[in-house]
Amino acid sequence: MKSILTMAWTAEDPSAFDLAAKLARTFDAKLVGLEPPSYGVMSMAWADAGMGAPIGGGLAEDAEERQRVAAVKQAFEQRATGLNSEWRSADDSGPTAIGTIGRAYDLIVMPQPGALPKMPESVFETALFDSGRPVLVVPPGFGGMVGKRILFAWNGSTESARAISLAMPVLSGAESIDVLSVDGAMVPGPSAAEIAESLRSHGLNVTSQHVKPGNRSAGQTIVDTAVSGGADLIVKGAYTQSRLRQMIFGGMTRHLILNSTLPVLFSY
């Protein structure tokens, strides 16, 4: 891993910058910060798609927008001190830019999306669907490091299999990996035990387990198992079910996107 692209929505939540900088130091990687799209640009993009703007109330004033972006840039620069780093500004940071720009980087690191003041979920989805690269989502307030103890959420799918390849630079440095499958949340495919055996052939320390969720959702079962097992990172192939279905009915991926208390590395 030699190049990392990162974005934060506000300077009040610099967790993505903190973790991206730590990873850049660990992997001796170049770190690039991307200016977040403005509220106005986001609202116009949604209007062009025939949808209501995701920003409640009136648009932010230009001066407020400049202040927000300047604070985000300053937060990035403070954390990038001593690194090979770069800041990419407004001329290439429209609402879909992170997806296209992200194709040139080994990893994209972003804050956990949600309702304002969090980053809009649509920005995360652009990065995930358009870049072809793994996207690391960092929950607010997270101050640790990731990659020593990993929980790999396996459901038998093509998306989960692809996640193995895309996450291998992180998996290969782990002290332990636990491959977890959840009863009732599998599709036809190899078991967690078979995936663990495959990963062990790479010289990795891997265990596996298949758990029953009880009264919990599959997504919450994954989070609870990761936390109780001392994991610092969850790895997940995203959206085995369609995104629209998950928006309407809920799903494992969307639960992890919006609610995980641990960083989650997604691929699609």
From TrEMBL:
InterPro entries: UspA
Alphabetized Pfam families for the sequence: Usp (PF00582)
Domain of life: Bacteria
UspA domain mapped to chain residues: 196-265
Name of the protein described by the UniProt record: UspA domain-containing protein
Species in which this protein is naturally found: Reyranella soli
